[in-house]
Amino acid sequence: MTDTSPSPVRSVPDHPTVLAAMRMASRAPSLHNSQPWRWVFDGLRLHLYRDNDRLLTSADPQGRQLVISCGAMLHHVRTVFAAKGWHTDTTRMPDTGRTDYLAVIEFRPWPEPPIGVLARARAIDQRRTDRLPLLAPAGLPQLLHTGRMLVTPHDLELDLLDDSARAKLTVASEHDTAVRRYDMEYQAELHWWAGHSGDSEGVPRESLVSDAEFARVGVGRTFPSTPHSARRGTLEDHARLLVLSSPHESVTAWLHTGEALSAVLLECTTAGLANCPMTHITEISSARKVIANMLPHPGIPQVVIRIGTIPDDEPDFPPTPRRPLTDILTMKHQ
After folding, report:
1. Is 44 helix (H, G, I), strand (E, B) or coil?
2. Phi-psi region of 82 (alpha: psi -120 to 50; beta: other; left: phi over 0)
3. Do residues 124 and 108 touch, judged by C-beta distance below 8 A?
4. What global pTM score does this model have?
5. Which residues contact 105 (CB under 8 A, 6 or more apart)?
6. What is the pLDDT of residues 238-284, one digit of tens each?
7. What is the gyration radius of the CA atoms in the chain, in angstroms?
8. Phi then psi dihedrals of residue 87, to 5 deg
9. What single DSSP character describes residue 306?
């Protein structure tokens, strides 16, 4: 007799689903596109570890930006699995004796995830870091409303800086550039990670800007410049600046910052807005104080995000490269 009883519902995604989800989620942004994460799927749970070999010791001596990067991928992973019908129950810092062990994910079916999650999952392949001048962002009030809803579960605040912030942060960026100019370790590290095309990691040359283009933006990390060009040559930058801030400083707060950052960047992309996250500006104590004084509440600024609109009829940037999945994911068979 043929067994017509329904098949039992799987409690864990199968290996092809895990591989597809992780490949998509690896599009998450990271400091200098260093992709400083290691994942292990043990057949039931998914474990996230920081890759300390990818710590940028000059740019990120405490590993704050590394952990924020890992948090961004953690959120990308959870978003992709949700779109594939899986709820992810996440425990952060599951073993206090292991500082490199950042999170573990357990799964349960989620047949009808929210529409917003599905839209943010679709935005993953579209999101780019845009360092060029931008038009003013459209639909800012709605974005702020949605963004604040997304970051609140992470115990963070999302604030819009006023127009005076640009000049102050430009001065802070210029000061940081001047201090770093003769820091040979920092410069060597920066040139190692930026300006090379064809690699599976780092910021490729085509994603960088020329001195002339950067001069119209002002706020941003100074990378090795590309040959002179003037893309969007008639456009002065009218991007607005958002700030993610935390109530305290800890590895857990940094991890949550990365998750909240991912949510905001994907929501910006869904809303048709270009974006550029900046974690370096909050690595500078003087700039961090300037930003903190502009917030309407106490808090520790963690990330500044430039958001704006790309001019019409402009071709998309090519996606930045990613490491092979086998380099970042270990699949253990039970």
Report:
1. coil
2. alpha
3. no
4. 0.94
5. 45, 46, 47, 48, 77, 78, 81, 88, 89, 90
6. 999 999 999 999 999 999 999 999 999 999 999 999 999 999 889 88
7. 20
8. -80, 140
9. E
